TrEMBL record:
Pfam families: T2SSK (PF03934), T2SSK_1st (PF21687). Residues 229-282 form the T2SS protein K second SAM-like domain. Keywords: Cell inner membrane, Cell membrane, Membrane, Protein transport, Transmembrane, Transmembrane helix, Transport. It comes from the Bacteria. Belongs to the GSP K family. This is Type II secretion system protein K. It comes from Sphingomonas pseudosanguinis. It is found in: Cell inner membrane. Its main location: membrane. GO terms for cellular component: plasma membrane. InterPro entries: GspK, GspK_central_sf, Pilin-like, T2SSK_SAM-like_1st, T2SSK_SAM-like_2nd. Residues 111-223 form the T2SS protein K first SAM-like domain.
Amino acid sequence: MADHCPKSGERGAALLTVLILVAVIAVLAATALEKLRLATRLGGNAVAIEQARGYAYAAEALAMIRIGDLLQQAQGRVSLLGGWSDRPFALPLGGMVGGGSAVARVTDGGNCFNLNGLASALPGQPGVLIGNAVEVAHFAKLMRLLGIPGQVAEQVATATSDWIDNDQNPQGGGAEDALYLTRDPPYRTGGAMMADVSEFRMVNGVTPELYAQLRPWICTLPQATPTMVNINTLAPEQAPLVAMAQVDTISPGAIAQALLRRPPQGYADAGAFWAQIPGASGGGGVATTSGWFNLRITVTLGSVRVDERALVDARQGMPQLVARIWGEE
């Protein structure tokens, strides 16, 4: 019997099938290798990130010691003496493979308008928050001093107070749930102290432009108390934070001049500060010490970078970390 010889067309089809199988296997192999490479990289990054966070925790501990030393030396008067504010100090990471660094900075955390001070605890009922009309007026004036139109300033200040207080009764020009529930998507007011400044963006009347303008001036300290700035660490350009709580005859310019004349060791008391301002007989909203500090930490390990922002409570003498946020703002 004669052997069957495949025709040329059959041989071509078989070859094409083999080539297709080879191509499919090559694609599958390449995909598997890419997934393996990605998984390896992600695993390596996860380990590096955890290691970087560990160094950040170490930098926190070092910063706490420095803040404690600062308060011990200050003896009731915290000033800029020694140049500690915003000065970078590094955590030694010698011998790191690929190179690495951890840098921390400490600044006064109370020289800002505390949005949570727009409400206050109802006497005898610490868990109940009501609007603070005095601080609403101060916040509105601060915005006017920064060039924000008066009508907008009044609306935003009142709406922010309404956002924090527990009731559903809007103050004049304010806003409660009834307004926010009509939006798409609908949402409700916080009804509690703000945990982060970013929450301010949800308040009625706060545009992205207004938020960007106010961001350097505001903060959310975890206490519903009026703003109290330290005249011994306050920068002259921050004079509106003092002027907002004073009569209109005391200008930010006069306050800035008094801050420029501040002794290196700071003013001994508020009276010595007000004595530098013509026509001023005293005013509120100022102190000569600090109870809050901001901490910023940046850790880099090779291509990995970790940023941390933290708030330190030093009101009781022993510094304590009360808030920590990872990532750039």
